[in-house]
Structure formats: C-alpha cells, structure tokens
Amino acid sequence: NAERAMHFVKNRGRAGVRFYQHQMSQSLLSRMKLDHSMRAALKAEEFFLVYQPQITLGTNDHLSVEALIRWQSPDQGLVSPASFIPLAEETGFIVQIGRWVLDETCKQLAKWRNAGYQIMASVNVSAVQFQQSGFVDEVAEALITHQLPAHALELELTESSLIKDVDEAIKRLRALADLGIRLAIDDFGTGYSNLAYLKQFPINTLKIDRSFIKNVPGQPVDEGLVSAMINMANALDLNIIAEGVETEQQQQFLQNAGCETYQGFLYYPPQSADAISEILLNTQTPSKPLRCTNRS
Ligand code: C2E
Ligand code: MG
Ligand code: MG
Ligand code: MG
Questions:
Q1: Is the minimum distance from the CB of 101 to ligand 1 under 6 angstroms?
Q2: Residues whose Cβ atom is located within 5 A of ion ligand 3
Q3: Most buried of the four, 41, 115, 179, 191, by CB within 10 Å?
Q4: Residue 241 reports pLDDT greater than 60
Q5: Residue 296 above 50 pLDDT?
Q6: What mean pLDDT, rounded, does the chain reach?
Q7: ipTM score of complex
C-alpha cells in the first residue's frame, strides 16, 4: 500500500542513520509486514502485559511492579518488545501502543488496589509518546478513568526523551510531578547522562541499566560506574533501582555500594497479573479498600 510506503520513505530521511542500520538487517518489505501485523494485533487484542516486581530490602508492606508488553501473535508466537517497539517508535504507532499500555496497567492496578492491596506500577514511556502534546492530559485522564491516586503510578522515561528539548521536557515533567505521578529514568547510564540536567528534572528514581549490572562484581570499570551512579542518586536524594539482578553476588555488591532496590530474575521474572495476585495474596493482608484521595 502506497501510503504506508510513502510513510517509510519520509521516515527514512528523518530517522537517518538509525533507519539505515535497520534497513540493512530487515528489508523494507518485512518492516511493512511487521507494521501491518502490529496494527492488526492491537485491534485483535494480541498484546498483553506482564509485571515484574521490584524488591526493596526490608520492605514488604507494599509491592512495586513494572509493566512490560508482550505480543502473542498467532503466526509468529510470542514476540518480545525488542523486536517490535523500535519499528513502532519509527512509525509513530508507539503512541497507540503506549496509550493501550497505560490504560491496561491502570485498569489492572485499580483491580489490585480496590481489593485492598498496596501496590504501585511503573509504565515505560517512549520518547515519541512523551513528546506528544496531549501526553500529560492522557495520563491524568487514565488516572481519573480508573480512579487511581497519582502516587500509584510511575512513568519510566529514557534520557533520550528528555535531552531533545530540555526546557519543554522539564515543563512536561513538572506537570506530571504536580499531578503526583512518580517519575523514573530508565536504562540510566546508557544515554547522555548530564548531571546539570539531572538536577533540574523533578524525578524520583534512577534505574541503573542492566549492561552495567551484568559486569559486577568483577569488572573494575563497571564496578566504579555503578558505585558512582549509586552515590550520585544518594546525593540527589533519588531512589535507585538496579535492573537485571541475576545473582546473589550482584545483589551483595549492590547492597554494599548502597543500592537496596532490585529488579531481576534473582527475585522474579516478569509474570502474569494472576501470578502477581498470588504474590499479593501471600505477602499482604488486604486493608479496607482505599478511596481515591490523591494523597499518600
Ligand atoms: P526495560 O524497560 O529496561 O525493561 C527491563 C527489561 O529487562 C525487560 O525486558 C525485562 O524482562 C528484562 N529483565 C528483567 N530482569 C532481568 C534479568 O535479571 N536478566 C535479564 N537478562 N533481563 C531481565 P523486556 O520485557 O523484553 O523489555 C525490553 C524493553 O522493551 C524494555 O526495557 C523497554 O525499553 C521496552 N518495553 C517493554 N514494554 C514496553 C512498553 O509497554 N512500552 C514501551 N515504550 N517500551 C516497552
Ligand atoms: Mg523500564
Ligand atoms: Mg531498563
Ligand atoms: Mg529499555
């Protein structure tokens, strides 16, 4: 279809080098097929969410989980986000996917909270989505629709979302923070981590990228970088989460370095909403259902 083909051609100019690299590994035709099946998948409800707990030492009165998208395709099987999110970002379809993820997460979060559980969820927000002018309103609307207090929701942004137009990003972050939504920087350390900017962003949390955690303990450079990131988070009074913690040795290193919140296979893989309900059932005594007050 010609319109879609034009879209790719136009995009090629805009996305530049990144497009070129993708194009070398994936033909235009296969990209168009993927684009088409992705759009059909949203309508056919083939996307679903899994949730991965984040564990804080000495804390079990509430649970935090990150929502992660999955695609159960009838012909391709289970497709990981790494194979469709990048294309969705290039075509802009990520905006629709992102809306669905936000709504679905809020819907599930409301179910858990209305059953009396203390649970918060974080949602990944792509740069393209964050830069949409209506983004803040959409988030506010999702909270209202599902009667959720803002502090139950955290948004994970990457440094690339914030660096393009810093003043606009700060405005938008402020608006979200003013609503009471928590904000995290995802994959921290892989982008243009600018310390001066970091101080200005009204964020709550830094998530150290898995590529650093993978190499500790053992690789002195990454050990130093991880410690520096933890110290910096402490200096800025931010929460710090280590992503991709797989071993006791990693956890011990991180704890010694001052990081007490972990997300990784050592604790839990991402899992279904039902499996999360089971964890809640086994770890919390549900309180009387909370009314939405927008206070902590
Ligand atoms: P991310 O946000 O940094 O998510 C963490 C990724 O690390 C997840 O991969 C998770 O399954 C994986 N992970 C967690 N613990 C471990 C571990 O101990 N070892 C290893 N090897 N991996 C671990 P996943 O679910 O495949 O997602 C990959 C990326 O795709 C995410 O990285 C995020 O950037 C993107 N993504 C996923 N869901 C969404 C979404 O709903 N919206 C957007 N915009 N992006 C999403
Ligand atoms: Mg994330
Ligand atoms: Mg990450
Ligand atoms: Mg990521």
A1: yes
A2: 186-187, 243
A3: 41
A4: yes
A5: no
A6: 91
A7: 0.98
- Provide the total of helices (H) and of strands (E) in the chain, helices listed first: 13, 9
CB proximity list for 45: less than 8 A, separation 6 or greater = none
Residue nearest (by alpha carbon) to ligand 1 atom 7? 244
| Atom 34 of ligand 1: nearest residue by CA position | 124
In ligand 1, the atom with minimum distance to the C-alpha of 245 is 18
Reduced 3-state DSSP string for 208-241: ECHHHHCCCCCCHHHHHHHHHHHHHHHHCCCEEE
Looking at residue 293, its pLDDT comes to: 52
Residue 291 has pLDDT above 90, yes or no: no
271 forms beta bridges with: 51
Residue of higher predicted confidence among 198 and 37:
37
Ligand 1 near 211 CB (within 6 A):
no
Which tokens is 98 given? Answer: 């992102």
Q: Is 270 in the pocket of ligand 1 (CB under 6 A)?
A: yes
Q: What is the pTM of this model?
A: 0.91
Tell me what pLDDT residue 195 has. Answer: 79
Task: Find residue 242's DSSP bridge partners.
Answer: 208, 262
**Closest ligand (CA of 188):** 3
Ligand nearest to the CA of 125: 1
Distance 157 CA to ligand 4 centre (A): 9
CA atoms lying within 13 Å on the CB side of residue 44: 11
Residue 68 Cα to ligand 1 midpoint, Å, equals 6
d(CA 296, CA 93): 35
pLDDT at 10: 47
